[in-house]
Every structure is written in structure tokens, then in C-alpha cells.
Design a protein that fits this description.
This protein is an alpha/beta fold and 412 residues long. It has two domains: 184 residues, P-loop containing nucleotide triphosphate hydrolases (Rossmann fold); 110 residues, no CATH class. The protein is built from 14 helices and seven strands.
């Protein structure tokens, strides 16, 4: 029986739970991308874990269509100098596995579909040119790349340092370096020692872009003289990374989703209770002593600082509370004065004419009352969203651990 990603469902269920927690505190729309990633990964269960989808990507004239033909020993991909040559994706599917992956590949929309015999576990896609004059081609590439397990980025010996390639594409994708293989094609046009220098310089450029892994191959897929070169090495690498490329891709996508969620709700640790318990006594003492403005400012400063450390619903609630807490302190201080009065002689009357507490004791009573009422206010105004945020961060931390454990287990 073909092995499937049955255990991936558990992780995706956990991701759904983390998303549900984060939705309570994230700004509207900020989690759409992460939610889409989780939904898309559920589609990954639709095809076997030992079958991977790789895309050949590159600019006009890089020779990726020639490379497509050479890797699959076919002539299906059109090769030529017309700009652009590849106008829509072409998918080549292992003939014996077509039914196993057809459901997933239907998501790629209109595309030419052909079959091949080897490699037996690899779907290879020839993508439209990334620098096409047709904007629709660029949009097609952008929309389809997230759906593949591995990316084979093809450059030629002249454009490998092109800023549009590095700043426009690669730097934004460096966090997913495990998905990439790089090919410097058409090396037959230069001397072997110059080809080696170009490969080394391209590796340096990729490292500058932030790629931790730089698997670069030198090929000549369609030389003017002689047979193709470097194809066997690249094909072997693709075959060896088929299973792990999908694992790497899934783990990277889940990791990106976690990062997006954390960015939406804020990642800084908040020790609210400790800070508030210390501050509320100071605020209450100031208010009880008649320093209402100073008390309100101190409470507002605390809540404003808190708002700057969080995001989403928690930031909104803390911001509203910071703007309102001065008024609330005045209101509570008046209540305290009314419920804990001091008579004109500086004393409060007790039962049967007994002398009441001293003014200092009354101030303490007022402070205790104010502190309790401020707790009630904070409980209603900010604690629910802060608690929900903490729960979401806890769920995300647990999810991150599960993703790492799943990846390590799959790599064995």
C-alpha cells in the first residue's frame, strides 16, 4: 500500500485549533493567509508521501524547457527563442501514478499534461518565464509555487546575478531554502574553469540573499555540440530528495503559518498580572490621597505601554482602557470618598458615639476600596483579550514543537 500522510491530519487539526484561538485576538483579515496555508496543506494528503511535485522556474532564455526535456528524456517542452517560450505550465506525470495525483493536480488549472516513465515518483512542471513580458505569466508562477514540494530555479551564465531575480524573488523566499535546487545552465558556452567560478559566485549571491542551503548544479541541457552535461547529477539529486522535499515543504509552510499568526497577535511575553498587582497599589494610594490626576496618568501609562507590546484585539482593548482609565480613577475615587468619609474633626463617628478610625486609617480604607474597584475595571476591560492572547501563544508554541517533532520523525 502506498504510504500517505495520515499523521499530518493530527498536526493540521492542531493548527486549526491554534488559528481558532488566534482569531479571538488577531486583527480582521490578518490570519487569512495562514488559514489558506493550512487548508492547502490538507490537500497535500490527497497524494502519496513518496510522490513529490517539483517546478522548473527561471527567466527567459535560461533553458529550463530544454532542461525539462533532458531530465525526462523527452521532447515535449517547446524550445525556442520566442519571448516567452513557456506561456503556461506543462505538467509531466509518472505514467504509472497518474490516477494517484490527478485530484491534486486539478488545482493547477488549465495546463498541458503529459506522462513520463522516469523518475517514477516525481511530477515535474515547466513553469512560465518569471520575467515574462506577459504579466499573467508572472501571476501564474506566483500562484502555483506555493503548491509544489520543490523548486528547481534555473539561471543562465549571464543573468545569474540579475538584481530583479534576487530582490524580486529569491530574497523573499530564503526562509524556505530547503525547498530549492539551483541550476546554472548553458555552461557549455564558457570554459570549465569559468563555469566553476560562476557557480561559486552564484552560491555567494544566494548566501547574501539569506539562503542557508545552496545546492547548485552546473548543466548544459541543450549544447551546440555534444550530449547534455550535468543532467544525471541533477536527476539523481531530485530522485534522492523526492520524499524529503515534501516533508521539508510541509514543515516550512506550517512554520511560516505559525510565524504569520504570531506576527498578527504579537510575540512579546507579557507579565501583566505581576506588573498590575504592583502598580494598582501605587495608583490606589495616590487616588485615595487626592492625587487623582497623577494616579490616572500612572495607570494610563502602564496600559499604553502594554498596548504597544501586543497586537490585535489585546492592543485595541488596552488602548481603549488607557484612554479611559483617568476618568475611571476619578469616578472610583469619588465613590471611595463617599463610602469612607472623614468628619470635620478629623475623625469618623462609630456606633454609640465611639470614635472612628483616624484619617490615615480612612485613607488606607479608601485605597483598598479603589484597588478592588480598579481590579474589577481591568478584569472587564483588558484581561479577557490578554488571556485569550496567552492561550493562543501557548497553542502556537505547542504546534511549533509538534511540527519539529513530526519533521524529525519523518526524516528517520
Amino acid at each position: 500500500m502506498v504510504p500517505m500522510y495520515d499523521d499530518l491530519s493530527t498536526i493540521l487539526d492542531q493548527a486549526d485549533g491554534a488559528l481558532a484561538s488566534a482569531l479571538k485576538v488577531a486583527p480582521p483579515g490578518r490570519l487569512d493567509s495562514a488559514a489558506a496555508t493550512v487548508r492547502r496543506l490538507r490537500n497535500r494528503i490527497d497524494y502519496p508521501q513518496d510522490l513529490a511535485i517539483a517546478a522548473l522556474v527561471g527567466g527567459t532564455g535560461s533553458g529550463k524547457s530544454s532542461l525539462f526535456n533532458a531530465l525526462l528524456d523527452t521532447d515535449e517542452a517547446e524550445v525556442g527563442g520566442v519571448r516567452p517560450t513557456t506561456s503556461s505550465p506543462m505538467l509531466s506525470i509518472p505514467a504509472a501514478r497518474r490516477s494517484e495525483v490527478s485530484r491534486y493536480l486539478s488545482r493547477f488549472g488549465p495546463a498541458r499534461r503529459v506522462t513520463h516513465e522516469n523518475p517514477p515518483n516525481l511530477v515535474l512542471i515547466d513553469m512560465p518565464d518569471t520575467d515574462s513580458v506577459e504579466m499573467s505569466h508572472r501571476l501564474t508562477v506566483d500562484s502555483l509555487l506555493p503548491m509544489v514540494d520543490a523548486i528547481v530555479w534555473v539561471v543562465d551564465i549571464e543573468k545569474y546575478r540579475d538584481d530583479a531575480l534576487h530582490s524580486g524573488f529569491l530574497r523573499d523566499m530564503a526562509s524556505e531554502s530547503g525547498r530549492f535546487l539551483f541550476v546554472v545552465n548553458q555552461v557549455d558556452r564558457v570554459a570549465p574553469e569559468q563555469a566553476a567560478t560562476i557557480v561559486a559566485d552564484f552560491e555567494l549571491a544566494l548566501q547574501e540573499d539569506g539562503f542557508e542551503q545552496t545546492r547548485v548544479f552546473a548543466t548544459s541541457a541543450h549544447p551546440a555540440i555534444g550530449p547534455p552535461t550535468g543532467i544525471e547529477e541533477l536527476r539523481t539529486e531530485l530522485e534522492e530528495t523526492v520524499d524529503q522535499s515534501s516533508v521539508t515543504k510541509i514543515a516550512a509552510d506550517l512554520g511560516s503559518a505559525v510565524s504569520e499568526i504570531i506576527a498578527a497577535i504579537g510575540d512579546s511575553g507579557i507579565h501583566f498580572d505581576d506588573g498590575w498587582q504592583s502598580l494598582r497599589g501605587e495608583v490606589a494610594s495616590l487616588a485615595a490621597s487626592g492625587e487623582i490626576i497623577a494616579a490616572g496618568r500612572q495607570a494610563a501609562s502602564f496600559l499604553s505601554t502594554l498596548a504597544a507590546q501586543v497586537s490585535g484585539k489585546a492592543r485595541e482593548d488596552c488602548g481603549v482602557a488607557a484612554a479611559d482609565v483617568g476618568r475611571k480613577v476619578r469616578e472610583i475615587a469619588k465613590e471611595a470618598e463617599a463610602t469612607h468619609p472623614v468628619d470635620g474633626a478629623g475623625e469618623r463617628s462609630g456606633w454609640f458615639g465611639a470614635k472612628g478610625p483616624s484619617p490615615g486609617s480612612v485613607i488606607d480604607d479608601r485605597a483598598e476600596y479603589i484597588a478592588g474597584r480598579l481590579d474589577e475595571y481591568v478584569d472587564e476591560a483588558v484581561r479577557p483579550s490578554l488571556r485569550a492572547r496567552a492561550e493562543a501563544l501557548s497553542a502556537l508554541a505547542a504546534l511549533a514543537v509538534s511540527i519539529t517533532s513530526w519533521r524529525i520523525e519523518r526524516a528517520r
